[in-house]
Write the structure tokens for this entry.
Amino acid sequence: MSELRQLECYIDGQFVSSEHYFDNVSPVNGEVIGQIAEADHQQIDRAVKAAKTAQTGEWSRLSVNQRCDLLHRVADRMVERQQEFIDAEIADTGKSLHQVQTIDIPRGAANFRAFADMARHHSGETFITETPTGDKALNYSVNKPLGVVAVISPWNLPLLLATWKVAPALACGNCVILKPSEETSSTAYLLAQVMDEVGIPKGVFNLILGRGKNVGDAITCHPQVDAVTFTGASATGQHIMKAVADTVKPISFELGGKNSAVVFADADLEKAIAGVARSTFTNCGQVCLCTEKVFVHRSIADEFIDGLKKSAQAIKIGYPKEQDVFIGPLVSKPHQQKVLSYYQLAKDQGAEFIYGGGVPPFDDERAQGCYIEPTIITGLGDDNRVNQEEIFGPICHVSIFDDEQEVIERVNNTQYGLACALWTENLSRAHRVAPQIDVGLVWVNTWFLRDLRAPFGGVKLSGIGREGGQHSLSFYSEPVNICIKI
Ligand SMILES: O=C(O)C(=O)/C=C/C=C/O
């Protein structure tokens, strides 16, 4: 961990020091665990220019197979260094060892392998054309890289979400400027080391560190940045969209959510209780796909709520590496204050607290951390701010419904449209209801079960576009139609 005491930018194949640094603070106990560089605009310009130059250098002369073999080597090296990635992700986020070992870090290498393999089969289209006037032509398309892609990644699943975009961007032949969240830059720094060790040509992958407010626009608005892909808060997405509008560059946004879980009377109640507890409290509620609204059928409401409360009570909160810990702290003091402000709002609005509502009474260094209690509330209307605004913490509001059409309308009563989890053992109901929910992802009798080939993204305030499988290959490429007169 000592080498993570000072995180540097990686520009044009070199780790470079910066004039300014800011503290990396542990969310477990509030201690300063290191320093993070803050790039200046000259460094950002150098990184973008290096990426532009690399675009027409050795990287562009590699075959797709050579490029994808290199990305498999990146994955291999990440696996070799996985313990360092695990320790770094935990140091930055405080999330549990179980979560980091089973979700965050394995998906880093998996993202590189998945997109390296998909890119090998990224094909074009071919048409033999005969026009009404008797002209004949061969029309085909070739896929070219966009050029320099800015990847702006969030703090909730740092390595998973950075590689979810860096992998396909590189697999499609682009060069990348990665700007991780200032809250969680350590695994991105290790990724830069891996790129360097594997021999990704200089300038192809660049790491720019710093606080979004100081470096974000300088990256996204840079005239030689050809595309922007961002996962994070909807408000930030709106800001980026405005900032880059004059350059008309392609954007791919996976933004906020206010996701529902619906438990029908014909659900397997035990599975639904466990599934909703998982979709609400995983990663301390800090996943864009997490459940914040639960709709349960009246006939099973008491039993369900009792079961969900017992699940919340059984959650062990503690040190990330403590045995059986399910959740650690929230990512930062400001975020803890934001989530607590919604707990207070719920209290002020007269919500009934079924469980939680405060901060765990740690009497040790964790009292200086960003811990918070898993919370279950009920009694607020669908239009209440608590039920309309993304909280991004371990809290859900439970509402009762009576019939299918009613609950579909209530689930869709939101500005967001990312994910939904339906719990029913009735196949017809599952297939009937799922398409009526205005989101990008519907899970039935599960949650966060992911196929990297499937379209991933949201509608309304939850984002623009889809990534995953062919959708990533399409976003990170420019198809060119070539027409040959024959
Ligand atoms: O699982 C994924 O590929 C993904 O993108 C997850 C996003 C979660 C955002 O908070």
User: Anything to note?
Assistant: The first strand starts at residue 6 and ends at 7.
